[in-house]
Amino acid sequence: MIDWTRVANLRDEIGEDSFDEVVDLFLEEVESVVDRLRADPDPATYEQDLHFLKGSAWNLGFAEFGAICQDGERLAARGEGRSVDIGAVIDCYGRSRAGFIAGIAEGKGRTSAA
Prior knowledge:
By secondary structure, this protein is mainly alpha-helical. 74% of the residues lie in helices and 0% in strands. The chain is elongated and about 45 Å long.
């Protein structure tokens, strides 16, 4: 679900203080889009929204979430936005977020614990 090697690499690349800021910004921006998808899903925006979510997810190691966003983005790009299972996207984000936060608390995502 979470690519802990990616998390450790990002933490090493940008440093601990910047990592915490990136995580906070990621959660804020991604949750804003996820909340909008939950409250007011619009197939006309799925391609753009899922592209944003995919990139954000993969940058922070949310591998499964990034993959489900990529699948939805591809459907939307083919004009099949109504086929995208937004509920599954939202559910995957929730599970990924919970796993990420729990893993960080356990010390995962550090070079020695990746």
